[in-house]
């Protein structure tokens, strides 16, 4: 059985690619209260609001990894270690500041992006089967939809947070660059 984290990680590349593409939101049709309650329960169990955080981890992790590679062999061990401690601290601070922004965006967008997809493509009985987490064709159908749902939400979160996150990400990269220059300068 594939874990939720593994499924998130699989969809991460699709999220990154999907964030750059324009996408249409699913058309919303009237949904019965009983079916909406089942959709809400699926969403509560699945927790897709952490997709935005996963999207942030890729560029932040890449920046830290690039810094580590740049420092290898170019800085004295004590300077390298101090620089990496600072860089990791900056990355953690960035994630602490940015995660609530992307989570808030996802929480706002889930009802208009993911919930309609679930309501449109699943019957009430299928939603009940998902909730029960049975080993069934419905589970496979849900897992097959994960990339599309993640892409849809990822596009929305990226569009919704771009004006706030991009300057913060640029600031993080600049701080890392300054710290690297300090570490490698004799």
Shape: elongated
Oligomer: single chain
Report the order of strands and helices: HHHHHH
Strand residue percentage: under 5%
Radius of gyration: 20 Å
Secondary structure: number of strands: 0
Structural class: mainly alpha
Q: What is the first-to-last residue Cα distance? A: 53 Å
Stretches where pLDDT is under 50 for at least 5 consecutive residues are: 1-27
Largest sheet: none
Rounded average pLDDT: 80
The tally of helices reads 6
Fraction in helix: over 70%
Which descriptors would you attach to this protein?
mainly alpha; 6 helices; 0% strand; elongated
Walk me through the structure.
The chain has 186 residues and is mainly α. 82% of the residues lie in helices and 0% in strands. The chain starts with a helix and ends with a helix. Mean pLDDT is 80; it is low at 1-27.
Summarize the entry for a quick read.
The chain is mainly alpha-helical and 186 residues long. The protein has six helices and no strands.
